Amino acid sequence: KKLVIASGNHGKVAEFREYLADLGFELLPKPDELDVEETGETFLANAHLKASQVAIATGEWALADDSGLEVMALGGAPGVFSARYGSSDRDRINRILQELDDNPNREAQFVCAIAVATPDGNIIAEAIGVCKGEILHVPQGDNGFGYDPIFFVPEQGKSFGEMPSYIKAQISHRAIALNILRPKLKDLQLA
Ligand code: ITT
């Protein structure tokens, strides 16, 4: 079965390729020219929009991810605006570090909403995953993508940027959401 990964974010796509490898889908990229406007107010609403519109445009099953970082001392920012919080990963990271300054409350969480759409755009499955951590004062490590270098996971004693991908694949917001959907994706593959 074919499944379009409805994302233009290379970091996400690489993780999905790794996390979905055992399910045996033929994973297709999102057509470059296809850009879905993220007008939703929640991660789930945006995941729905992306999955439906990419499914309809390609005529294939589609899986979309809307995700972001919520920093508690910043009132949950950047949240659904995580991709629009600056013009590069470095800018976005620096903006958060600047806004937090020396605030001792470093509490944060990554959230991931995933939606799966039929070729005619109906959402047949959705899930949300959350991973709690702390914002470092200085970026550490260059594994992963996006905000990974400033997101520290106390249980691991490491930032996402310092973790090998197989460890992030066991604990991340994306892995948690995908594990909820795994049985449905297996059914879909067998149907
Ligand atoms: P698509 O919509 O095409 O999938 P996008 O990058 O615009 O790509 P989002 O709107 O969901 O995706 O924005 C997610 C933002 O949160 C983006 O800035 C990511 O870098 C960041 N992000 C999400 N998951 C992350 C992770 O596992 N590690 C680091 N940063 C992450």
From TrEMBL:
- Report residues binding Mg(2+): E37, D66
State any GO BP term from the record.
Answer: nucleotide metabolic process
Magnesium: is it a keyword of this entry? Answer: yes
Reaction(s) catalysed by this chain, per the record, are:
XTP + H2O = XMP + diphosphate + H(+); dITP + H2O = dIMP + diphosphate + H(+); ITP + H2O = IMP + diphosphate + H(+)
Gene Ontology CC terms = cytosol
Q: Does the keyword Methyltransferase apply?
A: no
Which keywords has UniProt assigned to this entry? Hydrolase, Magnesium, Metal-binding, Nucleotide metabolism, Nucleotide-binding
Q: What domain of life?
A: Bacteria
Cofactor note (record) = Binds 1 Mg(2+) ion per subunit.
**Binding site residues for substrate:** S7, G8, N9, H10, G11, K12, S67, F145, G146, Y147, D148, K168, H173, R174
Gene3D superfamilies registered for this protein in UniProt: 3.90.950.10
HAMAP family xrefs: Non_canon_purine_NTPase
Q: What is this protein called?
A: dITP/XTP pyrophosphatase
Provide the gene name from the record: rdgB
